[in-house]
Recover the amino acids of this structure.
């Protein structure tokens, strides 16, 4: 049987040592009438070779962003991942280890997470980062719960230019504690959250405002001004970034007045993988550490005074306070965080700035080519590597016809925002060559 | 000059930031084939970044050596035996890693057309069906990212069910042996937690539940086998009781590795269960995630499952979001897909017979260790166990030695320590789960080590208190870490 080393002889040694003649003697205490009769109705087991060939077939039923030219983004970005990432995270001392509860055996994981926490603080210009969360959407929901704990208020104001699936996730998470959620509508001309509109949406019971930057439509938000407005009401600003490469070029949330910075670091080192696992991040100010959910690694010493690392602030977790725990999070996305760190370090400060500029340049070129083809940006705000365009034809049939040309031409926004019924969200990264962009524009012009 | 090594060839390694040298790039991005954008002109002044303080600059080889050295300070499942109770540290098959790395699975976008994603949807659809069959549930969602995320999902569905009936319920009953995430998840889902004691018998009695249950009880949440490694023998009666009060029975599926092909939770009266693919279904723990925590439910709760659902129409698979009763979403997109691919591969490799054999062997292994170590260490409950067994340090206390000392000394013998001080109902608990993938020889050596440590506790307790001695760092000062928090590097970059 695969992966089970026991020979018949081993089994008899074990049975003898236990003092029984068969497994049934041990299972005798189980309610007999409830035992499974016969075997599970599952396909027969396969040899390794058969398995691999079966799964090769299934994977082949998918079309990849390698086989197609993709302009899809919307929270999952197609970036080049340097070879060092897969090579290093494939070291089984990393991927087959458990959560580092025994620090003497897990200094590698612990130091790597400590470094990841530092990298996130540097990227976001926040004081402190946790060891990572599931994804950007759940991290946003956790940030909202955290803001409520800090402020003792209930009101939550979401920008409607926040990723729709992030908004949905926040709503689900808040079902247990009464939602009190409202949305502030984006400006239909600029494609961003207007400070004036926010002013009217908040009050003295507002715990937090959540804005995405760059937002779901790709637009840059006036984060500093939004921060000023919510801070006047003594609420908190949560800034969501799900295209983390933008932080190579854009002023970080910590310098724009964010109280909690969350988002997804998938863009660093983690493949699209049909949407998961991705890499939620969360960083905040020192004063809020004890309200921050998720694992944290701290630096300390061993008994000989040598530098060492361990998990810390466990009192926030469930082992001790159980139902009074800060959150139910009991893990992180450790291996994804490791991949992100390795990618960030491989780029370095210079490489990251260049990569961000390259993404901006590709998107600006795409914008210009599409405009020449008669497809204009739908909003006036500046963007990073993603933007919204308005098309003449029905976007769904347009996308379908582009697929015939092996182009994934962006995301139709109709199902998320019914008013944007003729709009496409398109992204360009370093993986879209000039030639691909030209061809996309040509095909759009033809269509 | 400071020596470069400690023991063997374990090399010292500074923080990555301390290896930086301004101007170095490891792997430079592709060259510009489009005009270089003028960021300063395009991006409003207030939104342009000035610098990236401290961000490290390293060559490729220095990056590779850094992480290679760090990896060597880790103990993984491939390094040796990892008898971590309630965590099911079974072997992570290499073929699953190969499969999960196929570009047809890694380089697909969650929003690409369903027509282009049929392979992914088929894997997910079938995995749901396999998990339903294994657990005896009617429907499964794969969306939650971890066990605790699955718990939250299940509890939110239960809450929503009662809300939609116009009669919200407020309480969840949880035994004292439960994982800490159970009460935390219940709280997050808006419930008040009612703890019940397992009454010294190690299992929950119907009477204990009866005393706690009322019409405000939305669910009883238990783990079966429980965290003592014991089968909750009254589960069916407890299920009948909960159902008679109109509530649901939630089973934390963390210990599913004990009962595959032996019992189906659905047959035992369970209404909701979360699976831990990173435990039972062999996906790697990754040093703490990513995991995956699918949830199975009985038909009555099916309308409340998170969206989207995968439906099969003819030969085609599609994602369905129009489900008015659904609790909504717990994350963006569909779940930790690449973890699902590994679990799917594991199930296909094992088949139904293989899964059953895995559970049977896991039980044999745990009972073997239990029998051979009882007497050396105090058994919490001397009766047949399922896939894990729980000892305590009661016999060692006379020598002034604690569970933590035994655990740390095990490291010197080349083992990852068992789960310690959990479950909370056993003071000084030592919880051992060998899993089915460990051989008789491995267990024998472990047993010898545990016995040798018990002997050392009598003859040389200092050895235990100072353990581990063979690791690169020795006992770590966790108190100091919490009292004087240093949570990031704050030096100045070279």
């Amino acid at each position: 049987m695969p992966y089970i080393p026991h020979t018949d002889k081993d089994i008899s040694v074990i049975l003898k040592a236990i003092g029984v003649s068969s497994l049934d003697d041990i299972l005798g205490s189980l309610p007999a009438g409830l035992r499974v009769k016969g075997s599970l109705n599952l396909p027969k087991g396969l040899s390794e070779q058969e398995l691999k060939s079966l799964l090769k077939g299934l994977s082949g039923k998918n079309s990849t962003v390698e086989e197609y030219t993709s302009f899809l983004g919307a929270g999952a970005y197609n970036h080049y991942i340097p070879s060092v990432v897969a090579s290093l995270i494939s070291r089984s001392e990393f991927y087959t280890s458990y959560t580092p509860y025994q620090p003497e055996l897990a200094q590698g994981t612990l130091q790597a997470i400590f470094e990841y926490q530092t990298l996130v603080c540097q990227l976001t210009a926040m004081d402190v980062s946790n060891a990572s969360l599931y994804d950007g959407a759940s991290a946003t929901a956790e940030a909202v719960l955290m803001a409520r704990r800090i402020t003792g208020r209930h009101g939550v104001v979401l920008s409607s230019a926040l990723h729709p699936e992030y908004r949905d996730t926040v709503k689900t998470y808040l079902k247990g504690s009464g939602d009190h959620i409202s949305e502030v509508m984006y400006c239909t001309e600029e494609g961003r959250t207007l400070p004036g509109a926010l002013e009217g949406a908040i009050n003295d019971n507002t715990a937090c405002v959540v804005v995405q930057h760059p937002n779901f439509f790709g637009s840059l938000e006036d984060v500093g001004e939004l921060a000023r407005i919510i801070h006047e009401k003594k609420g908190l600003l949560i800034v969501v970034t799900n295209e983390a490469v933008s932080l190579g070029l854009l002023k970080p949330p910590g310098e724009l007045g964010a109280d909690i910075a969350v988002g997804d670091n998938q863009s660093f080192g983690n493949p699209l993988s049909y949407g998961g696992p991705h890499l939620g991040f969360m960083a905040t100010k020192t004063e809020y550490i004890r309200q921050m959910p998720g694992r944290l690694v701290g630096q300390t010493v061993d008994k000989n005074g040598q530098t060492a690392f361990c998990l810390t602030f466990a009192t926030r977790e469930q082992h001790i306070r159980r139902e009074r725990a800060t959150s139910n999070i009991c893990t992180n996305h450790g291996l994804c965080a490791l991949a992100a760190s390795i990618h960030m370090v491989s780029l370095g400060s210079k490489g990251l700035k260049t990569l961000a500029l390259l993404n901006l340049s590709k998107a600006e070129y795409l914008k210009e080519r599409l405009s020449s083809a008669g497809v204009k940006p739908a909003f006036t705000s500046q963007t990073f590597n993603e933007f919204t365009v308005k098309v003449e034809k029905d976007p769904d049939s347009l996308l379908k016809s582009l697929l015939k040309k092996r182009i994934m031409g962006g995301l139709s926004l109709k199902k998320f925002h019914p008013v944007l019924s003729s709009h496409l969200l398109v992204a360009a990264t370093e993986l879209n060559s000039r030639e691909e962009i030209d061809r996309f524009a040509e095909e759009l012009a033809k269509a | 000059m400071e020596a470069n090594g400690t023991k063997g060839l374990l090399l010292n390694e500074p923080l990555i930031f301390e290896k930086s040298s301004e101007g170095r790039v490891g792997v430079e991005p592709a060259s510009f084939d489009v005009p270089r954008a003028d960021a300063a002109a395009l991006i409003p002044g207030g939104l342009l970044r000035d610098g990236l303080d401290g961000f490290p600059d390293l060559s490729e080889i220095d990056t590779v050596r850094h992480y290679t050295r760090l990896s060597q300070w880790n103990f993984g499942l491939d390094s040796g035996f990892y008898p971590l109770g309630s965590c099911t540290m079974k072997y992570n098959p290499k073929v699953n890693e190969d499969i999960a790395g196929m570009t047809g699975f890694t380089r697909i976008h969650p929003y690409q057309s369903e027509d282009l994603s049929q392979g992914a949807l088929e894997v997910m659809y079938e995995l749901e069906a396999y998990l339903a069959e294994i657990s005896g549930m009617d429907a499964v969602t794969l969306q939650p990212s971890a066990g605790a995320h699955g718990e939250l999902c299940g509890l939110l569905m239960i809450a929503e069910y009662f809300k939609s009936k116009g009669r919200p319920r407020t309480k969840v009953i949880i035994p004292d042996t439960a994982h800490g995430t159970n009460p935390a998840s219940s709280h997050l889902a808006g419930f008040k937690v009612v703890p019940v004691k397992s009454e010294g018998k190690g299992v929950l009695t119907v009477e204990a539940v009866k005393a706690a249950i009322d019409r405000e009880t939305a669910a009883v949440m238990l783990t079966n086998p429980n965290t003592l490694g014991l089968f909750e023998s009254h589960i069916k009666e407890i299920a009948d009781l909960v159902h008679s009060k109109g509530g649901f029975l939630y089973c934390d599926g963390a210990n599913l590795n004990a009962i595959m092909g032996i019992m189906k939770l659905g047959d035992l009266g369970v209404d909701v269960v979360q699976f831990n693919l990173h435990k039972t279904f062999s996906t790697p723990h990754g040093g703490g995630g990513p995991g995956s925590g699918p949830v199975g439910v009985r038909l009555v709760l099916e309308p409340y499952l998170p969206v989207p659902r995968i439906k099969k129409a003819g030969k085609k698979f599609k994602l369905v979001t129009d489900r008015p009763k659904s609790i909504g979403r717990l994350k963006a997109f569909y779940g930790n897909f690449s973890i699902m691919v590994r679990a799917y591969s594991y199930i296909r490799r094992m088949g139904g017979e293989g899964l059953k054999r895995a559970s049977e062997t896991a039980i044999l292994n745990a009972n073997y260790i239990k029998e051979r170590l009882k007497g050396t260490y105090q058994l919490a409950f001397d009766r047949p166990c399922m896939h894990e067994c729980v000892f305590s340090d009661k016999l060692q206390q006379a020598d002034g030695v604690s569970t933590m000392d035994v655990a740390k000394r095990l490291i010197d013998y080349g083992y990852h320590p068992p789960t310690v001080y959990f479950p909370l109902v056993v003071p000084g608990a030592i919880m051992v789960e060998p899993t089915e993938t460990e051989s008789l020889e491995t267990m024998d050596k472990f047993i010898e080590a545990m016995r040798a440590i018990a002997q050392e506790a009598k003859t040389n307790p200092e050895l235990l208190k100072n353990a581990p001695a063979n690791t690169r760092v020795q006992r770590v000062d966790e108190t100091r870490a919490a009292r004087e928090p240093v949570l990031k590097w704050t030096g100045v970059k070279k």
Notes: The radius of gyration of chain B is 25 Å. Residues 337-373 of chain B form the longest helix (37 residues). Residues 95-349 of chain B form a domain with the Aspartate Aminotransferase; domain 2 fold (CATH 3.40.640.10).
